[in-house]
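Holo prediction. Input below; ligand is zinc ion.
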Amino acid sequence: MFAQLALSLCLAAGAPAPRNIVLFIADGAGFLHYEAARLHDEDPTGRQVYDGWPVRLAMSTAPLGVQYDPQLAWREPDWCDRDATDSAAAITAMTTGVKTANGRLAVDPQGVPVTPLGRIMAAAGKATGVVSTVPFTHATPAGFAVSHADRGAYPEIARLMLGDGDLDVVMGAGHPWHDDDGRRCDVADYRWVGGAATWDSLVAGQLGAADAGYWTLVSTRAQFRALGNGPAPRRVAGVAMARETLQEQRDGDPLAAPFAEPRREDVPSLAEMALAALNVVDGDPDGFCLLIEGGAVDWASHDGRLGRMIEEMTDFNRAVEAVLAGLDERGLLGETLVVVTADHECGHLAGPVPAYVFLTGEHTNSLVPLFARGPGSGELVARAMETDPVRGPYLDNCELGATLAGAAAGLRSCRTEGPAGSNTNTGRSD
Ligand SMILES: [Zn+2]
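Structure of the complex:
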């Protein structure tokens, strides 16, 4: 074990540091979520989205105080369904290398804030941003950028994300005036955007500061698309005209086959938002770091909506393809670490292929896939020192976090210690 650790650290020390990092997270997506989307979306040539990626691993997501057990996980499938992480603890592990209690965003088990990846990269002078199919203040995008002991404190988290000068891009749902079908509401709900005063000053172009820049608000699909090319504002808040999800909560039969129900045409796809975000940050001479989340994969999985889950995974995969093409066009592929993974599995999706069913409505401890390419991706292989009998080599989500945070801040190791019983998971978590 020591020899392997030494090898890992040597590789890390000798590896070229990525100038840019793009972290894609399909929230709630295990191996079969990816597989179900692949089967539905199969190209006639058999081409797959992640063909040719040099790093293909599995990742454990078990919460503080629990360790993934590859024998129990397959011998007693119920084992995976107990004591799983929530998205807050998972994103904390992935952006800091520190395991913490559920509900906490970049705050360790003792309650001490830990600097998350977005802030590390911003401190290194890089442009940073988050993009999601759910409100940008939800746990996964929030844990990239801010420390907060309560992931549910949405208005305060929104104000931190929009107010402290670190982030250059926030994009997602959360519009105060539009529901999940785009209808104008009679009463606004400002919880996802920091309250009425913050929203009003964002609309007026007065949110921000002279040195950090003022936020430019975009909301319509045409505005998002237009941002994909050409000159871009310095800081962009993209709040699509949807309250909680871009597509997943829209009207129509939620149990229909994928893409059988009409899609909303007035909101951007995740790919359109991601390309807009890339265009905002790509001019920074120091580089950039983006987190791009397929957040509603998790929502569909909690609700057992297989068709909508496949829609969300397809939207996510399209975003990965679009960003890779965008990086290639800009000549940035060779200096960008791209990682695609999940924060945890949700729903215990099971076969037989392709007639999948969800066995629970909760998160599980099943391994999730991890694909990576670009400078620094070899370190992830070196850290994958455990082997699952079905999924093969795997690393832990805090090892991914240690790698990503270390890419900007020097070598890091995982921190998995905490007070006994500090995993506070109870009942359903998001
Ligand atoms: Zn969830």
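Residues 2-409 form a domain with the Alkaline Phosphatase, subunit A fold (CATH 3.40.720.10). That is the main takeaway for now.
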